[in-house]
Amino acid sequence: MARTAVPGRLSAGLTWRVCRLVEGRAETPTARTLVLDVPGWPGHLPGQHVDVRLTAEDGYTAQRSYSIANAVDGDRVELTVQRIPDGEVSEYLVDVYSVGDPIEIRGPVGGWFVWRPTDTDPVLLLAGGSGIVPLMAMVRSRRAAGNRAPFRLIYSVRTPDDVYYAEELRQRQRDDRGLDVSYVYTRAVPPGWSAPPRRIDTPTLNTAGWPPDFMPNCYVCGPTGFVETVSNILVGLGHDPRRVRTERFGPSG
Amino acid sequence: MTTADPRRDRARFGRRRRWYSPEVPIVSPGFKGRRRRTDVSLPPGQYLTEDFPVLSAGPTPRIALDEWEFVITTETGERHRWTWSELMALPTETPTVDLHCVTKWSKLATTWEGVALDTLFRDVRSDAGYALVHSYGGYTTNLPLADLLDGQAWIAYGYDGGPLTPEHGGPARLLVPHLYLWKSAKWVRGIDLLTENRPGFWESAGYHDYGDPWREQRYQGD
What we know:
The complex is a heterodimer. By secondary structure, chain A is α/β, with parallel strands linked by helices. Chain A has 5 helices and 11 strands; from the N terminus they run βββββαββαβαβαβαβ. In chain A, the strands form 2 sheets. In chain A, strands 4-3-6-1-2-5 form a 6-stranded antiparallel β-sheet, with helices on one face. In chain A, strands 9-8-7-10-11 form a 5-stranded parallel β-sheet, sandwiched between helices. In chain A, β3 and β4 (61-67) form a beta hairpin. The longest helix of chain A has 14 residues, at 224-237. Chain A is globular and about 55 Å long. In chain A, 49% of the residues are buried. By secondary structure, chain B is mainly beta. In chain B, strands 1, 4, 5, 8, 9 and 10 form a 6-stranded mixed β-sheet that branches. Chain B has a 5-stranded mixed β-sheet with strand order 3-2-11-6-7. Chain B is globular and about 60 Å long. Mean pLDDT of chain B is 87; it is low at 1-22. Chains A and B meet through β3, β4, α1, β6 and α5 of A and loops of B.
């Protein structure tokens, strides 16, 4: 059984750390990447998440979990937050939270939905919407570690405007050798796209994925419907269920 | 960690711990939050949802009912086995319980249909103190045997008036609502009774061994 990244980290329990916003980047009109400075950050594996705690002046607190988006980079931790209508935490983090302001985080958490930068097996990443975040951490960590494991990413979005990290993905597809990126558009396609909008299906996974014989490790992340559909197709195509790891994004306001 | 009766703790501190963290608060300027319904008490760090989110580590297994079985194995190797039709023939309960997921959501007053584990343990003789729960698909989770008894746990096959769907653990799942929901193993297949504690899937990956939401036992060391 996989354990979390850093030896000894859990011996004292997971402590809350005060961190501050260094930079905010708009990914889409409703999603924002937060670059946080977390003094003493112990490091993480791509795929892990953190718990975020906000406290109001009267002491009211709210907690949510968010996947880490970046590769290990000293005390820097990046999260990408999707604004959920009526979401008390996500609305604050996307619209209000300002450079220099404190929030509390603890982590990293999770030892299952992770990719280890020493792994050399082929990898198939399947992202639905904001489910791209932990998978992007894997793509970034692969490059940062100089790992040559063959990676394929299939990214399902509603429209071209909903793509997170769009420019970076374009560059990585060109520069990160052994990384293939393909897109599925469910509501509107980009200009010049040859097919109408559609949902991810068996032909998509047959052509843009890896064959089961290749025994890739598959990471599926997105809303429940996406994860159910994709993981059922993968198992139906003959992928070993033990090599299919899933993470579902429920509503997380 | 002290082991005071959690229910007494809850009665005494439940309301206060819902909103306020014990340390000096780090205030995030401009964060106001939405005060939720004040007539309910949630465990610390939880928020209310009306949805029923799904959490699982891998693909949803599909189990044919004519191949389904549930087995309790004691520490001496004695097996108590039920087929689907045998389970259906047992007395049914319809508990209405609150659910608390370690990913922070809580869902209140959910209604289930199933068989109390007290019923399944009626003829089981064991000196074991621990249980390791197994699922179709390979998932495991551990808990003290005492937490499965005395009306605290069920093998549930119905939810909200209908059959339990596969993504929520159907055909049958364990339901132990007083612990975080990862203990309520989906697609349950059997329970091994053990004389020593053996951590399950998430418990081996940094999550708390016991998982009491009212004491916010999310991770090891909490």
